[in-house]
Structures are given as structure tokens and as C-alpha cells.
Amino acid sequence: MATAKQMIALIKGHVLKDEEQFLSLALQVAASEARQGRQETADEIKKLVDKARSGSHPASATAIPMVRPRADLEDVVTASYPKTKLSDVVLGPAVADRLARLIRHQKQRKLLRDHGKRPMTHVLLVGPPGTGKSLSASAIAGELHLPLFRIRLDTLITRYLGDTASKLRLVFDQVHAVRGVYFFDEFDALGTQRNQAGEIGEMRRVLNSFLQFLEEENGTDSVIIGATNHPELLDRALFRRFGDVLRYVLPSDDEVVVLVQSLLDRRKSKSFDWEGIAKAGRGLSQADIVAATDDVLKDAILDGTAEVSAASIINALEMRRTSRDTASQL
Q1: What is the chain's Cα-based Rg?
Q2: What is the 3-state secondary structure of 48-107?
Q3: 118, 176, 215, 239: least buried by Cβ within 10 Å?
Q4: 6-15, 292-301, 311-320: lowest mean pLDDT where?
Q5: How many domains does the chain have?
Q6: Are residues 79 and 34 in the same domain?
Q7: Which tens digit of pLDDT belongs to each residue from 55-88?
Q8: Range of the domain at 138
Q9: Where does residue 117 rank: exposed (0-12), middle (13-18), buried (19+ CB within 10 A)?
Q10: Is there a single domain that holds both residue 107 and residue 224?
Q11: Model pTM?
């Protein structure tokens, strides 16, 4: 049954005529009922919420729901409403196909559920910085017309005993109540191996709690995304909790060319040294290539130049490489 606090919040939502808050709180009650083994009651509440939403918001299947993190999570979770699409991200074929599969599962989740199957909801993204992991999370939210909730691990993880696990419980209560894409960036800060030397007992308890939360039935089919630059630091048990693990790598020569082409639009000169650009971008991340090309475009705008040359792009890419090499030596 609903707790006294939940009842107060439900009544407040009704009095204030905040229908979205009222329905979101109802889903929280449903999630609580499901955790206590009262699945029939939980299903009945969810059906009523679905009926209310479909009746009052005919366009809800395509409109992005304007929701915010609950008040006690405002310092931990930030919400945004991306319009990014998968076509905006330059990815290797394998990663692009598997992300498309995740989106297909989500868009046809009712069909899968009707056949007794669970849609994919958990995915782990691993790879070097700047290779498109964060942008992919935005693209998934954009494709599904869902809010993107970023979990700020710097405020989630505290030095107070038990506080981190309590906040994590609140995050997953929202996962079960509000459908969205929940993005845990720099995931290794939370999922460090339990047997790692020097690891404190509190973080082991947090990780154990996190593993349990990932196992809970996800009635809203919210997407949970973890991203890390250091997969070697993650506890092995985490990999089994994710439906797919996608490895991001630095762009190939062809991907460097495609990325620069997509950024230049019609500003490139007629004769363009794409081979030279591919060579100059080799070993750089997507973020580096985007930043270098953007620098050239901004200079062209300020100089009143209608076109940019391949030489200017190559020079900017080489400067980025020098900057990276210098930073790594510090």
C-alpha cells in the first residue's frame, strides 16, 4: 500500500492539478507494490496510468515528456530533452547496428512484452574519451523521445556512511516511476572491483546495492546506460547485468572523412585533400576532430571566408595532436 508520504504527495498533485506529478507518483506506488510481491496490484495501477495518459495526451507517444527529477534528487540527477539522432553520431558499423537494435527493442517493447519477452534496457558503453559515448546516450533519448537523466556521481557518492546507497535507491525509484534514459557517466567511480586493494567497505556495500537494483524488474522499461573509459576497473559482476556491452574505438580513416564532411557542409573548397585529412586525424578521438574542424569554421566566419581549405583542417588536426601529446606528458 502507499505510504503516508506518497499519499500526501498524490493529494498535493491532485490539488495543484499537476497531472504528470500525480501519475508519476502513482507509478512509484506501483513499483513499491511490485517490490513487495503484489504484482497484480502494481499491474492494475500501471494500466490505469497508461489509460489516463493515452486519454489526455493523444500525442504522448511522440512528444518528449517534460519531467524533472524529484526534489530529493535535484543535486544528483539533471534532466535534458535531446533532439540528437543516431544519424548525428559517427559510429562504427557494429556499434551503430547494436544501438539501432536497442532502439528497436524500446520502440516495440509492447510487442515483446506481449510475447513474454523483456526488451533490452541495460547497455554499457566502454572506450577512450571523446569517442561518442555521451553523444550516443543523447541520441538514444532523442530517438525514443524520452528525457535524458544524467546521474552526477560526484554528488551521488558521499563520505557519509549509508548516504550513497540511500541516494542510489532514490535514483532507481525514479527509474521505476518515470520512463527515461538514465545515464551513469564515468561509471567506474561506482562500479570498482569489490576485491580491489584499498577499496573501503562502504563502496563495496554501494556496489552490492547497485547490482541488486539493476536486477529489479524495470516496469517502465527505462533505459539504463553506463559509460566508462576504464572497463578494466569494473567489477566483473556488472558486465552480466547489462544486456549489451559496446566497445567504442577511435574513428577509422573513413570515419574521420565522414565526420569532417558532415561538419563542413558546403564550406569546403572544390579541391579537397581527403587522404591528407584522414592521415592527420588518425589516432584522434571524435571530440578532437570535431573541435579542430569547429576551430577552422569559426576562423572562416570571423575572416569572412566563404570556403575552408583542406590545409587549414589538416593544420588544426595536427595542432590538436600536439596538444594531446603535450598534455599526456605533463
Answers
A1: 23
A2: HHHHHHHHHCCCCCCCCCCCCCCHHHCCCEEEECCCCCHHHCCCCHHHHHHHHHHHHHHH
A3: 215
A4: 6-15
A5: 3
A6: no
A7: 544 333 444 445 666 666 778 888 999 999 998 8
A8: 71-247
A9: exposed
A10: yes
A11: 0.73
